[in-house]
Amino acid sequence: MINVEQSVRERYSQGARQRQQALCCPVDYDRELLELLPAEIIERDYGCGDPSRYVRDGDVVLDLGSGGGKICYMAAQLAGASGRVIGVDMNDDMLALARRHQSGMAERLGGDRVRFHKGYIQDLALDVEALDNWLANHPVQDAAGYEAMRQWQLQQRRDAPMIADASVDLVISNCVLNLVADSDKAQLVQEIFRVLKPGGRIAIADIVSDRPATAAMKQDAELWSGCISGAFTESGLLDSFIAAGFQAVMFDNWDAQAWRVVGDIEFRSVTLTAIRPPAENLAAGNRQLMYRGPFAAVTDDAGRHWLRGQRISVAAAVHQSLVSAYGNAFIDLPDTTTGNHQGSPLPIACCGPEPTRGGCC
Ligand SMILES: C[S@@+](CC[C@H](N)C(=O)[O-])C[C@H]1O[C@@H](n2cnc3c(N)ncnc32)[C@H](O)[C@@H]1O
Asked: Could you tell me if 209 and 266 are in contact, meaning their C-beta atoms sit under 8 angstroms apart?
């Protein structure tokens, strides 16, 4: 059985030192954002999409598998002075490349708002650099030492998590989820959910396949580290995020052109967007929305039914997340009392399992 982590680590250590052409997927980044970046970061680009374009002013952004830091430094320009960006990567050579330019980039950005952490994206509570330091002083030599390390990790996760619960506005990632072992993928998606604030967003660019990779492909280290063997299937990616509790789950981008075809399986770049649902009581309404169409009715990932053209009252937090997640699908109705888009109390809408003309979400 191959060791996925080791093959990925070795491949991307090489990639940090020297550009690996086979790992590159052409991406049309915003050239203006690239202008501030050092050449060696731009050239060691192993992404397959551009999740930086989803960053908004003031966001706390978490980039999973930040590599040389390209997306983090682009995101920092969009998050602005009140935002900040955290990159997480497990690879020392990639972290060294990203950190080498940290102070220079802080000067160019006009603020030191990017941090890089060593960690596994499927275990975002554990700071692996802190673990390395602990192990330097407490080398594990026997079962008792192993148990001491385990207890230390439990305490770290609880008392000093690398990424705290509900602390991030936007989780982004560029071509990394496919590199995580299949047995860790459910935990990875749960971790993304955990660190997001209620109402927080994701924008994940990744490689997906139209059918599952074969057993032989799963045993091929080169295909694993090359973003092929561990790719989610299209439906598998959507289902995993829905199962973890995400809503408004969709392919915001789905490349018509396959990036690679292996055997007869197509692998292509997609960008998945979704939100962690807001915590507020969904039944309490003081804002109004209308589903625009073109379908007669739709059901969202929360099980709410929306009839075309019907005015629906929703809580302010739900309103904000629906408008931000579904964008153009809804008409944001002006407040009936003030005529602007700031909410005033409206009758509480009922919520039912079936669409009814009586009207509720
Ligand atoms: C294909 S590169 C993408 C790098 C970067 N996102 C970009 O756009 O250039 C994958 C990166 O993810 C990191 N990586 C892979 N699996 C990881 C894991 N389980 N936890 C943390 N980092 C991981 C690798 O070390 C590598 O830097």
From this structure: yes
| Distance from Cα 178 to the centre of ligand 1, integer Å | 9
Atom of ligand 1 nearest to the CA of 174: 6
Which tokens sit at 169?
């506005």
Contact indicator for 312, 359 with CB cutoff of 8 Å: yes
CA-based nearest residue to 312, from 338, 291, 327: 291
Q: Of 106, 123, 101, nearest to 44 (Cα)?
A: 101
Cα-Cα-Cα-Cα dihedral sign, residues 134, 135, 139, 141 = positive
User: Domains of the chain by range and CATH?
Assistant: 4-123+164-275 (3.40.50.150), 126-160 (no CATH), 279-361 (3.40.5)
Strand partners of residue 61:
85, 170
Return d(Cα 110, Cα 87) in angstroms, integer.
Answer: 19
What is the per-residue pLDDT across 79-120, written as a single tens digit (0 to 9) for each? 999 999 999 999 999 999 999 999 999 999 999 999 999 999
pTM: 0.89
Query: Within 6 Å (CB) of ligand 1, which residues are found?
Result: 8, 12, 45-47, 65-68, 70-71, 88-91, 94, 120-122, 174-176, 179-180
Contact indicator for 121, 88 with CB cutoff of 8 Å? yes
How many other β-carbons are positioned within 10 Å of the β-carbon of residue 258? 15
Per-residue pLDDT reduced to its tens digit, 260-293: 999 999 999 999 999 999 876 555 567 888 999 9
Which atom of ligand 1 is the closest one to the Cα of 16? 27
* Nearest atom, ligand 1, residue 121 CA: 20
CA distance 7 to 315: 48
Type and span of the H or E element at 293:
none
Task: Give nearest CA residue, ligand 1 atom 16.
Answer: 179
For ligand 1, atom 8, which residue shows the shortest CA distance? 47
Å from CA of 305 to ligand 1 middle? 38
